[in-house]
Amino acid sequence: MSDTEQKHVKDVYEAIAEHFSSTRGAKWKSVVSFLGLQNKGSVGIDFGCGNGKYLDTRPDLLIFGADTCGALLSICGERGFHVLRGDILQSPFRIGVFDFGISVAVIHHMSTVGRREKAVEECLGSLRPGGLFIFTVWALEQPADSKRVFSGQDVLVPWKTGDVVVERYYHVFVEGELEALVGKYGEVIDAGYEKGNWYAVVRRAGGLSSGFHLTCSEDR
After folding, report:
1. pLDDT tens for each residue of 87-134
2. Quick one: CA dihedral 214, 194, 217, 207, positive or negative?
3. Which of 189, 185, 76, 179 is nearest to 137 (CA)?
4. Percent helix, strand, coil in the chain (nearest 5)?
5. What is the b/e burial string over 102-116, where b = at least 16 CB atoms within 10 angstroms of the residue's CB?
6. Which helix (H) or strand (E) covers residue 98, if one does?
7. By the 8 A CB rule, do 91 and 121 touch?
8. Which tops the pLDDT comparison, 14 or 162?
């Protein structure tokens, strides 16, 4: 792990886990729509699951969670979720074990192109051939009414909890960047924009083509 990620990602989330979790209840429509299209009984993975808010979205799916933050995993454990400590850059799972996967607001915390590429490669490697994965990241292009204004693509974003202010590292993505990244490792079958975030759905090689579309992308 790079010094930047250790100090401005991992250490920060351990410190703010309880407060962070209390602010993370709403779910992205794109992710909920993606989960809604999975077949009953399918088995999935949420890399960077945080407080586990997506793990019980559909009780008829079995979704495992993995995260590097022990404090957030403890919250997941208290909620009865199936989670383990695992790094998105080094999957603890066998190759080809999951039907689908999600990674919500995670790979934008990787501080180099190579590390972002490795994260995507590990995620897709965990899927069976033809399996689908959705990635979401913060966008450089924010809505006009957003409080987020970025000076560049690699930024430190303050988080205030009580009297303490910490800074989280982000690589914010420009339009088309996420599709180009994930497209190196699979077939991009859907992509769009939702409230200041880019998302992309990618299929691991070996599956049949389809007309998959989430129909929830916003115009910009």
Report:
1. 999 999 999 999 999 999 999 999 999 999 999 999 999 999 999 999
2. negative
3. 179
4. 25, 30, 40
5. bbbbbbbbbbeeebb
6. strand 98-104
7. no
8. 14
Cα–Cα dist 53/81, whole Å: 10
**All domains in the chain, ordered by first residue:** 3-203 (3.40.50.150)
Task: Encode pLDDT of 30-87 as tens digits.
Answer: 999 999 999 999 999 999 999 999 999 999 999 999 999 999 999 999 999 999 999 9
What is the DSSP annotation of 7-19? IIIIHHHHHHHHH
Residue-wise pLDDT tens digits, 167-190: 999 999 999 999 999 999 999 999
Quote the CA–CA distance of 65 and 52 in Å, as a whole number. Answer: 7
Count other Cβ atoms within 10 Å, centred on residue 86.
21
Compute the C-alpha angle 157/163/164, nearest 5°: 45
Q: Per DSSP, what are the bridge partners of residue 62?
A: 43
Distances (CA, A) of 187 to 37, 164, 165, 207: 18, 43, 40, 10
Is 81 buried (19+), middle (13-18) or exposed (0-12) by CB count in 10 A?
Answer: buried
> What are the backbone dihedrals phi and psi of residue 146, each rounded to the nearest 5 degrees, phi first?
-75, 145
pTM, two decimal places? 0.92
